[in-house]
Amino acid sequence: MTSIQELLTWDNPVFTAYVIAAAVTVLKIMGQGWMTVWRMMRSGRGLVSPEDAAKGPLNPSPDPAQLKIDDYVDRSRRMHRNDLENIPAFWVVGFLFVLVDPAPGLAQALFYGFLIARAGHFWAYATARSHEVRASFYTIGSLIVIWMGVQVLWVVLT
Question: CA–CA separation, 90 vs 143, rounded Å?
Answer without folding.
Answer: 11
